[in-house]
Amino acid sequence: xxxxYVIVLSLLVSACGNDNSDTKGLIDCENRICSDQLGDAAxxxxxxxxVHVKTDNSNLVVDVSFLNIPDSLVFNSANILDGFPQYSWSxxxxxxxxxxxxxxxxxxxxxxxxxxxxxxxxxxVSLTRNDVLRFNGGGDLVPGLVIGQVILSLSxxxxxxxxxxxxxxxxxxxxxxxxFKVHATYNSAGTVYEDKFPDYNGYIQ
Length: 205
Fold this sequence. Notes:
Layout: E1 4-5, H1 9-12, E2 28-30, E3 33-35, E4 48-55, E5 59-66, E6 73-75, E7 85-94, E8 104-112, E9 120-122, H2 124-127, E10 129-135, E11 144-149, E12 151-155, E13 158-164, E14 180-188, E15 191-197
Antiparallel strand pairs: 1-11, 2-3, 3-4, 4-5, 5-13, 6-9, 7-8, 7-14, 8-10, 10-11, 12-13, 14-15
């Protein structure tokens, strides 16, 4: 069954970790391998390093490295409201290539806090919700349609997002020319810390 849900991170931000490492003229990218400055985020597991986008006839694969992702993170923190995102890592593609929300595909890895569940230490691979979302106009608060699932893996501080392109027709439009951006957030006691690449409101071309 197709599921609609709303990305609510923009409603949570009372204070954010800043990322001032990039400008439009100073982004290090070659052959869809791009590098962000490490050490510019408040937490190592959201501190984006290198991003590598790979496309072929079978899969869309994105490797995102971070300063350090420990073997386990704390889930179900008592200091976060129930039902709010605690962790989120995402890669978005501007399929329409117009820097709007007209046709956006997002590979979304999120954990929603559950205050009724015990606090546990787990790998993000084992507990997160891993969805492929399609947004078609209206901005951040318009529901995204779930069109597939992300196959997530973690190795040496690198999260790998893999999606079979034949799982939805929209995924077949993404290629080596499609603009993209990466976003990572962590909610601690109601404050949402973030790192994004690029840091300006746009996409890597």
